């Protein structure tokens, strides 16, 4: 993930949390974690 992509994800999560949309923020976090795991498995 590039620095710009990471910043975009973090700002999205921040906006969701500030708007009390915790469920959507958690969903986004889970998607990012799952993608990171998939990317990690590709390098092994």
Q: Would you kindly provide a written description of the structure presented here, covering whatever features stand out?
A:
The chain contains two helices and no strands. It has 44 residues and is mostly helical.
Helicity level, as a percent range?
over 70%
Structural class: mainly alpha
| Principal-axis shape | flat
Q: Major beta sheet, specifics? A: none
Number of strands: 0
Terminal CA distance = 17 Å
Helix/strand order: HH
Please state the oligomeric state of the protein chains shown: single chain
Mean pLDDT across the residues is 92
Strand content: under 5%
Give the count of helical stretches.
2
As residue ranges, the low-confidence spans are: none
Rg over CA atoms, rounded to whole Å, is 12 Å
Topology:
Layout: H1 3-18, H2 22-42
Task: Provide a short characterization of the protein structure.
This protein has two helices and no strands. With 44 residues, the protein is an all-alpha fold.
What characteristics describe this protein?
84% helix; 44 residues; single chain; mainly alpha
């Amino acid at each position: 993930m590039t620095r710009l992509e990471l910043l975009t994800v973090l700002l999205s999560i921040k906006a969701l949390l500030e708007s009390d949309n915790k469920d959507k923020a958690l969903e986004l976090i889970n998607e990012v974690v799952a993608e990171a795991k998939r990317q990690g498995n590709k390098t092994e």
